[in-house]
Design brief:
GO molecular function, one term (chain B): ATP hydrolysis activity
CATH architecture of the largest domain in chain B: 3-Layer(aba) Sandwich
Number of domains of chain B: 2
CATH topology of the largest domain in chain B: Rossmann fold
Structural class of chain A: alpha/beta
Largest interface: A-B, 43 and 40 residues
Distance between the termini of chain A: 66 Å
CATH superfamily of the largest domain in chain B: P-loop containing nucleotide triphosphate hydrolases
Number of helices of chain B: 12
Helix content of chain B: 25-40%
Number of strands of chain A: 19
Bound molecules: adenosine-5'-diphosphate, magnesium ion
Low-confidence stretches of chain A: 1-30, 259-381
CATH class of the largest domain in chain A: Alpha Beta
Strand content of chain A: 5-15%
Strand order of the largest sheet of chain A: 9-10-16-15-14-17-18-19
Organism (chain B): Nitrosospira multiformis
Largest sheet of chain B: 6 strands, mixed
Shape of chain A: elongated
Radius of gyration of chain B: 22 Å
CATH superfamily of the largest domain in chain A: von Willebrand factor, type A domain
Radius of gyration of chain A: 31 Å
Oligomer: heterodimer
CATH class of the largest domain in chain B: Alpha Beta
Family (chain B): Belongs to the CbbQ/NirQ/NorQ/GpvN family.
Structural class of chain B: alpha/beta
Protein name (chain B): Nitric oxide reductase NorQ protein
Helix content of chain A: 25-40%
Keywords (chain B): ATP-binding, Nucleotide-binding
Largest sheet of chain A: 8 strands, mixed
Low-confidence stretches of chain B: 1-18
Mean pLDDT of chain A: 71
């Protein structure tokens, strides 16, 4: 068994990883302005800029209740019981506590405080010290962490001179919170002394006996040597080192994350071949003891985390917090996604047996149960065959994918009205953005006829005539609405992955629908031809496209009801859908044609259409579109969009939404940028 | 019409022109082989296309090369109303006579100058087409209004610039146009050099120059996170100038570096955080 503390930390990490919606769930804090959520996005941007790649920031989970700890490990001295979540990093992700204590904000504003903690953890994450962390004794481990933390602070003070003041303030606050020396045994006192020495020092010097560790290896050497010295000095071999009280400065060093950062294209692809949204989740969980704790959001109807009790005689999958997952609510919800997230479990067979969770079928071959979902109207429509690009042999498979147009379902009339009523400000914003795109009235010079004389042209003609050139007849100017030769196609991914939740009550699909409706309403005012298609499907034989609005169609109520009826379907065979839409656009004969794909970006299907194959085919489809003078653009709602998007669509031809709620506005912005002449 | 009435007008108020190189070399710090490549192109009469983001030193490079090659330089900033006549020339009436006035391009062709068309994609298609015959082996400029066919003087060279970042549906350089140029790729200089440029151009202190460049490097990392425009060397130079003139560094960065780049509150806040963390007041 691994070290107890390591286990707890790990369990806590797993817990935090999945309860990402803790962000907005912070009921017991009345004043939201000094919590982490208030500055999360700002900090994420800051961290990305500092680290040079996207960094995700998560809420550190509160430590498990002491009762559970003591049950596991026997008695723990009071000053060593963790009472609050601590800043941490696993080499990739950064975890910060949701709140600070009131007293801590006297010296530093909460935002400055969080900013400093975030940058500290980022600095430590960059050293990737966890890979070196000594596993032999707690004493060496603590000394190692202390030396690493001091070194990271040193670098911070060096590169960010503006932070020195904040660093000093943080150290002062931490110093005021140290435990009574009387509580400590001699070994612990020695460590405490070293720690307080660091807190008292300036961040840009390292107080002896510590030494500046250029690499984690140096910290390791120092820690081993120092722990030896301490044991010799205190002389009492029997005294057990129980630990040092950890605080916000000390933080936590979590085991290294398996995800190597930055994500490279190949890695992104490899991630995608794993059906789970978060490949780490199940593999890690199966090795963890279950630490179930009561959280304030336990009763929420939201998705929780999954844990597998391996020691249980009867294997089953359980949601440890008893939380509901989206699939519980709806029999037709995409079980494929659910299977995806579970299929990676090391166990070959899992049987669902929990009362709180609806039954799940998990077989060896996930394909079997994926096929249990029946596509409405499958086979009813005549198919249109499209080729597919196979990167392995660098050629097309002819007639590899069949696109079938499905009759769109009709939703409630009231839905559109309720969206418009609920979001008047958003609609106005979208309209405002597209307003400027209305064909302007333009003055055309040098016309053969018109309302006014073109003086410039006349002078020119006169001069030219004097110079002996033939007379000009284009001497007029006229003002007309500019004719813009543009056609727009909106292609919406409604695959099962859009069933994901982006906020308390909205799924990706809901956000997509609302955005679509608002942009649709605004676009109709422009008068340019546009069409809207939704796509999903299953297998190459059934790529489904739902025409929500043809280029010609103008029935507002009908289109609104079709949009309202959209629900998450199955898979994303993006290549075929793009090819079909490309054909539609080419048929319009417009000079400028925009193809806007709204998606979570990951092409996948039941067969080989996954991972690299899917991405390469999509890339090829996009390239084909471009060859036909179509401008493809992708908007994705996935915050952690892997970098393959840049490869598929090309730099600046895609946008990644930070917040799904901004989709309508971003969509309008993208349209504006592309249409503006 | 009497032929005698047609005469060539002296160049007047047609465009911004730098007739002959100054005595002192315009400061330019090279990042690679661009100076020797450009020199070779000049010798072989090849047209050159400078690709790169705005404010990374393209104009400065052309000025510098004109000085080196001892050629006059004519710069035309293209805009979307720029027509062929604006480049080639037009008839004017003066003193009851018709006068042909050369446009900047024609003047460059006649005098053997380097003609730099800045942001050429902005120009109208008919304006772009007139440069075609100048960029192949013929090196001629036909002026259909006067019926002239001007052969380029040996020193003439056409240089265009183009920012691939500003991808625009309706504006792109046609492949047939692109093929006529030797392309030099420009980008922001590596940190050491960029700091050197900023210090030289602004007179700011050494450490400040380096801090600003480090800051810009970090902000440029936000390009993938929704920042449409990243800080250019030009922006750094102007920020450093403010600082060298006594404006507090953080304030100078906020007004000259951060605010011009974005309106997004979270992005602006994060950039301000970066400024505050990187610089001391
Ligand atoms: N390599 C360089 N050498 C010298 N100055 C440079 C260099 N790169 C950028 N600069 C500075 O940046 C400013 C902007 O450059 P400029 O040539 O106007 O950019 P561009 O034409 O690419 O938009 C210049 O005025 C100069 O101060
Ligand atoms: Mg999908």
């Amino acid at each position: 068994m691994a070290e107890p503390e390591g286990l707890i930390i790990d369990a806590a990490r797993q817990a935090t990883a999945f309860v990402s919606r803790l962000w907005d769930n912070d009921n017991n804090v009345s004043d939201n302005s000094c919590t982490l959520s208030a500055c999360r996005q700002r900090l994420e941007f800051l961290l990305s800029a500092v680290q040079g790649h996207a960094v995700s920031l998560r809420v550190a989970q509160p430590p498990p209740p002491p009762s559970a700890l003591s049950r596991l490990f026997g008695r723990i001295p009071r000053h060593l019981i963790e009472t609050r979540p601590l800043p941490a990093n696993d080499g990739a992700t950064i975890f910060l506590p949701m709140q600070l204590h009131p007293g801590e904000q006297s010296e530093l504003s909460s935002h400055h405080f969080f900013r400093l903690l975030a940058l500290q953890q980022a600095g430590r994450a960059r050293r990737r010290a966890q890979q070196m962390a000594p596993a032999d004794t707690l004493l060496t481990l603590d000394l190692f962490q202390l030396s690493e933390a001091a070194a990271a602070d040193h670098a911070l003070a060096l590169h960010f001179a503006g932070l020195r003041h904040d660093l000093m303030a943080l150290r002062r606050v931490m110093l005021s919170q140290r435990p009574q020396p009387a509580l400590l045994n001699p070994v612990e006192q020695a460590v405490e002394e070293l720690y307080c020495g660091v807190l008292k020092a300036c961040p840009d010097d390292i107080p002896p006996p510590l030494a500046l560790a250029r690499k984690p290896e140096d910290s390791l050497d120092w820690a081993v040597e120092m722990s030896m010295k301490i044991s010799i000095r205190t002389g009492v071999r029997a005294v057990r080192y129980r630990g040092c009280a950890k605080d916000l400065w000390w933080g936590k060093m979590l085991p290294p994350s398996s995800v190597n950062q930055p994500i490279r294209y190949e890695e992104a692809l490899r991630d995608m071949t794993q059906p789970s949204a978060n490949p780490r989740r199940s593999a890690n969980l199966s090795r963890r003891p279950q630490v179930r704790e009561k959280t304030p959001d336990e009763d929420d109807e939201t998705q929780g985390m999954w844990m597998v009790q391996k020691d249980d005689p009867q294997q089953h999958v359980e949601d440890p917090a008893g939380l509901q997952r989206p699939a519980d609510r709806d029999d037709d919800a995409d079980a494929g996604d659910l299977a995806d997230s579970l299929s990676e479990l090391p166990e070959a067979q899992l049987i669902s047996s929990s009362k709180t969770v609806r039954e799940l079928l998990l077989a060896d071959d996930p394909l079997d149960q994926r096929t249990t979902l029946v596509l409405p109207g499958k086979g009813a429509a005549r198919g249109i065959a499209y080729p597919e690009w196979d990167f392995r042999v660098s050629r097309y498979h002819k007639e590899a994918a069949i696109v079938r147009l499905q009759p769109p379902l009709l939703g409630d009339v009231a839905w559109a009205e309720s969206v418009v009523a609920r979001r008047p400000a958003l609609l106005r914003q979208v309209q405002l953005r597209l307003e400027g795109l209305r064909p302007r009235r333009i003055r055309y010079h040098r016309q053969p006829e018109g309302e006014e004389i073109d003086i410039n042209a006349c002078v020119n003609a006169f001069a030219e005539q004097r110079a002996g050139l033939p007379p000009q007849d284009r001497l007029y100017q006229s003002v007309k609405a500019a004719r813009r030769d543009i056609a727009v196609a909106l292609l919406i991914d409604i695959s099962g992955s859009t069933d994901g939740w982006v906020s308390q009550e909205l799924r990706i699909i809901d956000v997509e629908k609302e955005a679509l409706l608002l942009v649709y309403l605004a676009l109709t005012k422009l008068g340019d031809p546009f069409c809207i298609y939704a796509f999903s499907g299953e297998s190459a034989q059934n790529v489904s496209l739902w025409p929500l609005k043809n280029f010609e169609e103008n029935d507002r109520i009908l289109v609104q009801r079709r949009i309202g009826a959209l629900e998450p379907q199955l898979y994303t065979r993006a290549g075929a859908a793009i090819r079909h839409t490309t054909n539609l656009l080419t048929a319009t004969g417009a000079r400028y044609r925009l193809l806007i794909l709204l998606s979570d970006g990951k092409p996948n299907d039941v067969d080989r259409y996954e991972g690299r194959y899917g991405v390469e085919d999509m890339r090829q489809a996009v390239a084909e579109a471009r060859l036909q003078a179509i401008h493809p653009f992708c908007i994705t709602v996935d915050r952690h969009a892997p970098q393959y998007l840049a490869r598929v669509f090309g730099a600046r031809h895609y946008a990644v939404l930070q917040q799904a709620e901004t989709l309508p506005v971003v969509l309008a912005d993208v349209l504006r940028r592309l249409i503006r002449q | 019409m009497e032929e005698s009435l047609i005469k060539l007008a002296a160049s007047e108020n047609t465009c911004q022109d730098v007739p002959h190189p100054q005595a002192e070399a315009p400061y330019y710090l090279p990042f690679g082989d661009e100076v020797s490549i450009f020199t070779q192109c000049h010798r072989r009469h090849l047209a050159v296309m400078l690709k790169g983001p705005t404010g990374c030193g393209k104009t400065r490079f052309v000025e510098h090369m004109a000085w080196r090659l001892k050629r006059p330089l004519i710069i035309v900033s293209c805009h979307d109303d720029l027509t062929a006549a604006d480049l080639v020339g037009r008839f004017l009436i003066r003193d009851n006579a018709t006068v042909w006035q050369d446009g900047p391009l024609t003047r460059a062709v006649r005098t053997g100058a380097i003609c730099y068309l800045d942001e050429v994609v902005e120009a109208r298609q008919d304006a772009i087409v007139v440069i075609h015959p100048l960029t192949d082996y013929r090196r001629v400029l036909p002026i259909d209004k006067t019926g002239e066919l001007i052969e380029a003087t040996p020193g003439f060279q056409l240089v265009i610039s183009y920012n691939p970042g500003y991808q625009h549906v309706t504006k792109d350089l046609k492949p047939s146009t692109r093929q006529r140029f030797v392309a030099l790729d420009f980008d922001f200089p590596p940190p050491e050099r960029e700091a050197e440029i900023v210090i030289h151009e602004s007179g700011a202190e050494h450490a400040m120059g380096h801090d600003l460049v480090a800051l810009a490097g970090r902000i440029r990392g936000l390009a993938d996170r929704g920042l449409a425009e990243v800080p250019s060397t030009r922006l750094l130079v102007s920020t450093a100038r403010l600082i060298a003139n006594g404006i507090a560094p953080r304030l100078a960065c906020h007004v000259a570096l951060v605010s011009p780049l974005s309106d997004d509150p979270a992005l602006v806040a994060a950039m301000r955080d970066l400024v505050d963390a990187t610089l001391l007041d």
